[in-house]
Amino acid sequence: MKKTILFLSSIIVISNALWLYLYLNKDAEDIANSDVSLYTLHGSGEAWEVHDYKIIITPDKILRGHASLNYKGDPADLSQSTFFEYKFYENNNRGEKEVVYANEFHSYNGVVSILDNVKDTGSLTGPYSDGELEKDKSNYDSTSLEITWNDKEGQRQTEVIQLDIEKEMMIKADE
User: Fold this and answer.
1) In angstroms, rounded to a whole number, what is the distance separating the alpha carbons of residues 150 and 80?
2) Are residues 69 and 95 in the same domain?
3) Are 61 and 18 part of one and the same domain?
């Protein structure tokens, strides 16, 4: 009787291990056989230029960021700034603008080194949010950047820059 119970228990454990292995390999295979997209966007406004903003879409995550911002004016105009913020927007499938990546720098007892903080905006990588899977190239092509900063007189300035897809790369999985 003990041998029969041991034999049946072994079969259950082995079959569960086999199903787990097949399930995990199926996910790995699905990821390996899925498409990956890379969009590089640029834009220019009156005071700022945006270079190489990236959107990388993988089967289970999306990365946004790694742009560089270039101030077109005199760097002295930013020397006494105590506030700097940028927000990247995309249109969702309902045509509404939504913030997809943002960062803010402020100081109460000194200045913010804006020009040091715009060489690389950093990035955000994460799993898909609600509605993300319904987005396509047209949604990413609707990306805009809103930059807000205090100038040397302490006046709040804001500029909105429309970004355009400059480069696009798609890696198609073999089917």
Assistant:
1) 8
2) yes
3) no
